[in-house]
Design brief:
Layout lengths: L2 H9 L12 E10 L2 E15 L6 E8 L2 E8 L7 E6 L1 E2 L14 H4 L2 E2 L1
């Protein structure tokens, strides 16, 4: 094992619940505006997961007023204090980019697990 892996393992958060592609997740993110800090929640479907160790990222997608919004989050970042899995879905693909063309729960065809 090399030195970089050792450093990254020290930076990882210890007890995180595993997230899979297709899960609906609520991510809390710390927003800094001037001197104020606040927590903003973003809830949507995980369409992509990439990276490893402390560089692991997820991309979450949700639809707001008919417009799709995607945000990427570093899972082990100090700016992401917590996340909660709302529901899990069974999917057959590693990346759910086909959801970009679909609107609504029924059109997404995500089966509960």
């Amino acid at each position: 094992m090399n030195i970089i892996d050792d450093i990254e393992k020290k930076q990882m958060k210890p007890d995180l619940e595993p997230v899979d592609v297709g899960d609906t997740i609520s991510v809390s993110k710390t927003i800094v505006e001037g001197k104020k800090k606040r927590i903003q929640k973003f809830e949507g479907v995980v369409i992509k997961k990439q990276g490893r160790l402390s560089r692991e990222t997820i991309t979450v997608r949700k639809v707001i007023d008919g417009v799709g919004v995607e945000k990427s989050f570093l899972l082990h970042s100090p700016l992401v204090p917590a996340y909660k899995i709302v529901k899990r879905a069974k999917v057959r693909r590693a990346k759910l980019f086909y959801l970009r063309e679909r609107l609504g729960v029924k059109a997404s065809r995500l089966k509960p697990r």
